[in-house]
Structure formats: C-alpha cells, structure tokens
Amino acid sequence: MKIKTGKDGRGRILRSAEDRERLIREQRESGQTKKAFCKERGIVLQTFYGWAKHRGLMRKPTFAQVEVAVSIQAAVEVLLPNGARVGIRHQGKRDELVSLIRGVAGC
C-alpha cells in the first residue's frame, strides 16, 4: 500500500516510501548528523531511525576475523618503592625475574 504525503487525523506528517528513501539518501549525502538533519527539517529523530531500519537502509555491523599472534615473551612493568618504573620482557623464568626486581629495588 502506497501512502501519499499528507497529514493524519492527529496532525502528523505522513510521507510516502519514496519520500522516506529520498530523505535517508539526502541525509547520508549531506554530511550532517542524523540529529542535525532531522532538526533542520522538522523530522522526529526516532521516526527517521524507524524509516531507515524498516527499509533495511541502516548500516549493519560488520565483523572481521582477526588473528592475534601469541608471544612467548611476557612484558612486565614494575613500580619500585622509590617511584621508578621498570619495564622488562621475560620468558617465564620467575626466579630470575624476582632476583632482578630485588636487585633493582635494593631489597
């Protein structure tokens, strides 16, 4: 059913599907935010979002598969009692790491 542009019994503006699609396209091409575009034209923002969603014109989220390289080395940052920070990389040798921290901290 095609709705002609006009007003309903409560004074709300009715727009045809073509008008709604045109307005959505104009907003995208205008560079304005949806909020600014709607305010300038007297369109209720939620109504505008509803049009786009209903017509399937809203951007849908896209996802990309990402591979994260696993590193053998772990980075550690230690805040020493004197306020100094020490950043080091180690390969899981806990005793050596503890000895280094104690040596630097003067413990």
Question: Can you walk me through this structure?
Answer:
By secondary structure, the protein is an alpha+beta fold. The protein has two domains: 6-54; 74-105. It is 41% helix and 15% strand. It is built from four helices and four strands, in the order ββαααββα. It has helices at 17-30, 34-41, 45-54, 94-105, and strands at 6-7, 13-14, 74-79, 85-90. The strands form two sheets. A two-stranded antiparallel ribbon has the order 1-2. A hairpin with a 5-residue loop joins strand 3 and strand 4 (85-90).
Derived from helix and strand composition plus strand pairing, the structural class reads alpha+beta
Overall spatial form = rod-shaped
Main sheet summary? 2 strands, antiparallel
- With helices defined by DSSP (H or I, 4 residues minimum), what is the helix count? 4
Average pLDDT reading: 76
| Terminus-to-terminus distance | 82 Å
Rg, Å, rounded: 30 Å
Spans with pLDDT under 50 lasting ≥5 residues?
A: none
Strand order of the biggest β-sheet: 1-2
Helix content: 40-55%
How many distinct folded domains? 2
| Total DSSP E strands | 4
What keyword list fits this structure?
rod-shaped, alpha+beta, 4 helices, two-stranded antiparallel sheet, 107 residues, single chain
What secondary-structure arrangement, pairings included, does this model have?
Layout: E1 6-7, E2 13-14, H1 17-30, H2 34-41, H3 45-54, E3 74-79, E4 85-90, H4 94-105
Antiparallel strand pairs: 1-2, 3-4
